[in-house]
Amino acid sequence: MTDSPDALPLAGLRVLDLSTFIAAPSAAVVLCDYGADVIKIEQPGSGDPNREAVGFAAYPNSDVNYPWLMDSRNKRSLALDLKHPESHAVLERLVRGADVLITNLPPAVRERLKIRHDDLAPLNARLI
User: Fold this and answer.
1) Does residue 2 register a pLDDT over 60?
2) Model pTM?
């Protein structure tokens, strides 16, 4: 077996990662490891809060943010402020071509940002 991205079992799968902190980003990175094209959507400016997590008590004592490096590897990143209609329009275009959307945002935030399944299914009925 070859390690080229086209030979991996999830090659051709498009995943939108709208998650933060460990568990959900880890799920997305596993899909990435198996060849999926994962696009991480982050808030402009600050990005994912996990980017700045160096020095958290539960993290290794290091100047290197290993949890961020592990959870963001091989992903493409896109900054979108989903509170703005222009950014939401970009997300809608991405959703139309996506296979999977991963989020761990609280339900109230998903509703406010209009990223619940009920909001996105009309754009792409096969979205998981």
Assistant:
1) no
2) 0.88
Give the Å distances, CA to CA, from 104 to 25, 33, 61. Answer: 9, 20, 26
Q: Calculate mean pLDDT across residues 96-117.
A: 97
- What is the C-alpha to C-alpha distance for residues 70 and 118, in angstroms, rounded to an integer? 31
Phi, psi torsion values for 92, nearest 5 degrees: -60, -40
- What is the set of domains in the chain, with CATH numbers? 8-38+73-128 (3.40.50.10540)
Q: Which residue has the tokens 């979108």?
A: 80
Mean pLDDT of 53-82: 82
For residue 22 the two structure tokens come to 């460990």
Mention every residue, 6+ apart, whose C-beta is less than 8 A from residue 35: 5, 6, 7, 8, 9, 10, 11, 12, 13
C-alpha–C-alpha distance, residues 26 and 70, integer Å: 8
